[in-house]
Please model this.
Amino acid sequence: MTAPPVTTAPSAPSARSASGQPGSPDLLRSAFRRHAAGVAVITAEDGGRPVGFTATSLNSVSADPPLLSFTIATGASSWPAIRDSEHLGVHILGEHQKDLAGLFARSGADRFGPGTRWAPGPYDVPVLDGVLAWLVCRVVARVPAGEHRVIIAETVVGDPAGEGRPLLYHQGRFNALRD
Model:
């Protein structure tokens, strides 16, 4: 009869990691560069014209009611439209859409120019073609958080049937999953 394997407790953190660094914007940015996040594009209609931006802060909040959240800086060019819109679009991007993610992340870019495939969707919200999933949501709250707002929205309609694998953001760039 063989003896059961000996298990040991995980090693204690090193003195360096146990002391840590004081909280700061640089510490937060450095830590979150190590956190892989899904990539989404948020869209809205603003006086008859489409607006949108790339977001990596998308989260599921509740299944019942179906709520999600994301953040946006109040200095962002899309903020006035998000601030004033009752409905908005949420688009989950696939790994084949790095260029689209980059376009919607670039300040001053013509995000809805000839190279962007989209159509007006429910509630006149711009809906992007070729995404893994899209949702049209009704904004239920805009919560102040420093120089940002946390937007909480309830899903009204959508389509999760897109094909492909998700696009990720990690270490300051767009990436694909590896098996």
Remarks:
- The chain is about 15% helix and 40% strand.
- The longest strand covers residues 133-145.
- The two ends are 38 Å apart (CA to CA).
